[in-house]
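Escalated from tier 1: FE2/S2 (inorganic) cluster holo job.
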Amino acid sequence: MDPTLPLNPRRQFLAVATSAMASLGLVAVAIPFVKSMTPSERARAAGGPVDVDLASVAPGTLTTVEWRGRPVWVLHRTPQMLATLANHDAELADPASNEDQQPFYAHNPTRSVRPEFLVATAVCTHLGCIPTFRPELAPPDLGPNWPGGFFCPCHGSRFDLAGRVFRNVPAPRNLEVPPYSFAGNRLIIGEAPNVANT
Ligand code: FES
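Tier 2 regenerated the structure:
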């Protein structure tokens, strides 16, 4: 049979009925799966806050967690990494993070609550690719002025180690900072801080 021809009504009915049965089967499988989740897994699936043990993020390293279906970076910046942030304000589109896509506690040069930890959504503000972590200074492919940061391979947008976008790239804004707070040595993504623990 020519696959481009429309199905006759009986075949259409059978196709719809088969598809409906398959969907019911999936629901039947999914319900026990959801019931088997732990409370924190259910919260995660529902978009609730996500906990990160900061002891597992060594200085100089970056870890990625998922919150509300999007990747979020947690970067533990070293003093050397933090020092790079002071040297290129004139090359940035929004060095003081004045645009309102980040919470008030990210309106500072490190864009963070604790200077050593950057928490940012790992989604390029141009068309949504995931930038790559490029912490090294002046690698050959990024040029002698590269201070370390994030490079988007899709169309070449560049962000520094605070997620601030450089001028003259396609991305219009800094990387978004999600709501987050700290509880001791735990980071809670998805929960804004009380003023007291900023
Ligand atoms: S999606 Fe990142 S530069 Fe286009």
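The chain has two domains: 9-36, 50-197.
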